[in-house]
Amino acid sequence: MYAFTYERPASTAEAARLAGSGAKLLAGGQTLLASLKLRLANPAGLADLAGITELAGIRRDGQTVVIGAMTRHATVATNADVLSRIPALADLAGHIGDKQVRAMGTLGGSVANNDPAACYPSAVLALGASIETDRRTIAADDFFTGMFSTALAEDEIITAIRFPIPTRAAYVKFKQPASRFAMVGVFVAQFGSGVRLAVTGGGNGVFRHAGLEAALAKVFTPEAVAGVSIDAGDTNGDIHGSAAYRANLVGVMARRAVAKALG
Amino acid sequence: MQVQLTVNGKAHALELAPHTLLVQVLRENLHLTGTHVGCDTAQCGACTVIVDGQAIKSCNVLAAQVSGARVTTIEGLAASDGTMHPMQAAFKDCHGLQCGFCTSGMVMSAVDLCTHHPDASEAEIRELLEGNICRCTGYQNIVRAVVQGRAAGQAG
User: Fold this and answer.
1) What backbone phi and psi angles, to 5 degrees, belong to B4?
2) Which residue among A97, A163, A211, B65 is least packed, with the fewest CB closer than 10 Å?
3) How many CB atoms lie within 10 A of CB B48?
4) What number does CATH give the domain B2-76?
5) Interface confidence (ipTM) of the complex
6) Per CB distance under 8 Å, which residues of A are interface residues toward B?
7) pLDDT at res. A179
8) Series of mean pLDDT values for 10-residue runs along chain B (156 residues)
9) How far apart are CA A122 and CA A207, in angstroms?
10) Would the pTM count as exceeding 0.90?
11) What CATH number is associated with residue A191?
12) If you measure CA to CA, which chain A residue comes closest to B131?
């Protein structure tokens, strides 16, 4: 690693001020530290958000569950409100990386990083969540802007994510055998108003699939997925799998996710 | 910068560069070399230690991030008279190791697993050990050791 300074601000305002003067925000560090070790980044300083107590925690608020940005994956996976209201989200959080990573990794860190194969962005997008920052609220549909890219300003801090409670939902991923990241992951959520379905791992970033959403809005069954063609133009190919292979996986994971949601 | 750590029950005040990793402090400052660096990319789990009751990968955490925490390493498991922790004894009995490089991380992860998932099935144990890679054994004896170590720990 290159040398850097380390600060542990006690408030979001102080963290934003540090970020505004060039510090990189540190959440759980499960991605950031690995990239610093590879010298892929050379920030002058880190501002560790772990000291800001109001950024962690989970609460119910009407028909939503609000999860603080610094809440660890392990906490989301075992929280009673998440387990009872959005069990699919607890299930997703409980299968990110491995248990050591889940003890450190945070919701806000994952979503702000927007790794194209990360699990959380698919839940945020499929559940139509709102990303609350230190200065505004951003709809999930406007938040993810491509590979490792979001609508956040450099010094903007996610404070919490507000998840609407769906009628039913599920997440299924096919793991890349070596990295264990999602080769393709599908999060499906059924609401009174319709169905939202988001795909991670398949493309340059998380995306919704209009064809699958329309078919599942008509009939919410695994069979409904079979008639939908998945365009390999929407997916990426690499050494681990071709675009056509990933496109096929989108259909397979969508079918399994619907079956899982129906329990 | 100043970092406070309580490691295996002993308090330390350390003057460290901010970019010092927890595993570096354990191995290089405190000479607790039982915690290994395998992949150095947070995949293999050889560096697993328990911080404030949770297993984490010490190669992927800054010492500064965990300042004030209680850390348990493999050296902190055995009793003061040298009697092995039930999980260490089970790994020995079941031959849950071959070259031994992954073992300290594997044992720490197993101890953590039994704390947080005392009723895990064999399949769940395999899943919970996903963050620990062993390239020798094929995991069969490791899983046997976790089951036996858990039973011995619960009995004890």
Assistant:
1) -105, 130
2) A211
3) 32
4) 3.10.20.30
5) 0.95
6) 1-6, 8, 26, 29-30, 33-34, 36-37, 46, 48, 50, 74, 97-101, 103-104, 180
7) 84
8) 98 98 98 96 96 98 98 97 97 96 98 96 96 94 97 86
9) 8
10) yes
11) 3.30.390.50
12) A98
